[in-house]
Design a protein that fits this description.
The protein has 289 residues and is of the alpha/beta class. Helices cover 42% and strands 20% of the residues.
Length: 289
């Protein structure tokens, strides 16, 4: 754990962007919740519309308290500690990069973002994502980690990603950050694919829990716990009138339970073997008569 603290201590940036890698808005939801609870302040806003496709990422009309309309344009924002941000762990400062995934001029924007990260002396970067998966909403959300940084893999006992295919903006950004010598890790939450188009606070909560454990900070969970409970209950209501979907979810539950039971059995066997080795240390030498 000390090795993890050495890597993911100091100034840590958490990245989550709305788009291809944000099923159920879980990753952006997690970042939005944490930064609000930590009273993070806006440091930089990238709102150059040359980076966005406005036919796909349309501005949003908002009304103020007087009924006057305004527009929210696609942007990417960097948040950091503010004057009201509580200090929870010595030397840990959390930064957040969030907003819409850009559609255009990726390489130019990534160069700008890497420069910002270096200027802010960011020491480690966490890329958050969520994907639609064949998993039931009635079970705990699974979270997976991978890293291209050897020291991170060794400290956490995780693997390098072996994905080979189309890449999102987050993958390219992470690659360039790694090339700049900054350790990175990707944390992914699985969202049930049959409800992946609606916000999933349960998946956001899973990401928040994982970040808290890894980085050693805490935020109040009350609001997101309530939202996660309401989400699961609403999905239960949604599937009640669809027998085919109910049967499908039952299959997902059975598969998940069997897989976890098998993993538990394997883990238990490994623990028993380690216990056996510890108990028998020193017994393999020649016996004394």
């Amino acid at each position: 754990m000390n090795e993890i603290s050495n890597i993911f201590g100091g100034r840590v940036l958490i990245v989550a962007l709305d788009g291809w890698t944000d099923a159920g808005m879980a990753s952006t939801g997690a970042v939005s919740y944490i930064k609000d609870k930590l009273a993070s302040e806006l440091l930089i806003e990238v709102d150059d519309q040359d980076y966005f496709d406005l036919l796909r990422q349309r501005p949003i009309i908002v009304l103020d308290e007087h009924g006057e309309r305004d527009f929210l344009w696609p942007s990417i924002e960097l948040f950091g500690p503010g004057p009201k941000t509580p200090i929870q762990q010595k030397d840990l400062s959390l930064y957040f990069l969030t907003g819409q995934e850009p559609a255009l001029q990726w390489q130019h924007l990534i160069s700008e973002l890497v420069e910002v990260i270096e200027d802010r002396d960011i020491q480690a970067v966490i890329m958050l994502g969520s994907l639609a998966a064949e998993t039931p909403h009635t079970r705990p959300i699974k979270v997976y980690k991978n890293s291209q940084t050897a020291s991170v893999r060794n400290a956490l006992g995780i693997e390098r990603s072996n994905y080979d295919g189309r890449a999102g903006f987050m993958s390219v950004l992470g690659h360039e950050i790694e090339k700049a010598g900054i350790p990175t890790i990707s944390i992914w939450a699985q969202v049930p694919h049959y409800v992946a188009s609606m916000p999933s606070p349960k998946a956001a909560l899973a990401l928040i829990n994982d970040l808290e454990i890894m980085l050693g900070f805490t935020v109040d969970h009350k609001e997101i716990l309530e939202a996660a409970f309401e989400w699961e209950r609403s999905v239960d209501t949604f599937v009640e009138g669809d027998e085919d979907l109910q049967n499908y979810i039952a299959v997902l539950e059975k598969t998940r339970d069997e897989t976890e039971a098998e993993e538990l059995s394997t883990d238990q066997l490994a623990l028993e073997f380690e216990k056996f080795l510890r108990q028998n240390e020193g017994d393999s030498g020649p016996s004394k008569s």
